[in-house]
Amino acid sequence: MFLYIAIFILGAIIGSFLNVCIYRIPLSESISYPPSHCTNCNTRLKWYDLIPIFSYLILRGKCKYCEEKISLKYLSIEFLTAVVFLLTYINYGLSLYFIKYIILWCFLIVISIIDIKFQDVYAVTTVPGIIIGVIIAIIENVIYFTPFWNYLLGGAVAGGVIALIVYITGGMGKGDIEIAALCGVFVGWKYSIIMIFLSFIIGAIIGVILIIFKKRSRKDYIAFGPFIALSTLFTALYGRNILNYYVNLIR
After folding, report:
1. What ranges do the domains of the chain cover?
2. Which residues contact 94 (CB under 8 A, 6 or more apart)?
3. Which helix (H) or strand (E) holds 181?
4. What is the DSSP annotation of 12-32?
5. What gap in Å lies between CA 159 and CA 66, rounded to an integer?
6. Would you tell me which of 65, 66, 108, 199 could form a disulfide with 43, CB atoms 3.0–4.6 Å apart?
7. Core vs surface per residue 67-77: b (16+ CB within 10 A) or e
8. What is the dihedral of CA 230, 233, 239, 241, to 10 degrees?
């Protein structure tokens, strides 16, 4: 129970930092300077104003200094990060895989929220992730003797499938190629196939729901990056079960 609480708190703290990244990256601002401040009154926030989740609840969603309303998005991202960290720990324990995937979730949360808001994908959020994924693949090869080419092929397969769709249909953005390649490098080629397949299923379901409730029309652009991220989450946590079920179904 202690570790569950510790991992949840760790996720919430990192989620608070991800909020900074999500806000500043599209503005081409540094994520480290200036220190956290109210975007309305520019007052520098004290450490006790930045306690993840609790500060928002205690302040009732308002700035302590100017009482400007704080978006619920900040609380949601802190809570989301904490939950996915905890789910990853439950599945992998304190292992290299746990470290690998929580790093991936950090990149994907930032990428997804920015993609939803601005319909844009920044290389600064994908290229470093791919490089880190390759480094982790090398470490994994040394520790667990997992084939290094498995992850390189995963990036190539995932990115290649999306690239093919982008250049044939033009119905997706080039940034989706980078997101898919990033996820593929982390999950490997077998799970990349599951991940891509799930992303289209999830995208279709959510797209239909948005159209039914008139949140989007058929002609509106819907960011696909979050669907890739969500399918990667399912694949990383439950991909083995999905793969085993599929194999048994064939048999």
Report:
1. 1-94, 120-251
2. 3
3. helix 175-187
4. HHHHHHHHHHHHHGGGT--SS
5. 46
6. 65
7. eeebeeebbeb
8. -100
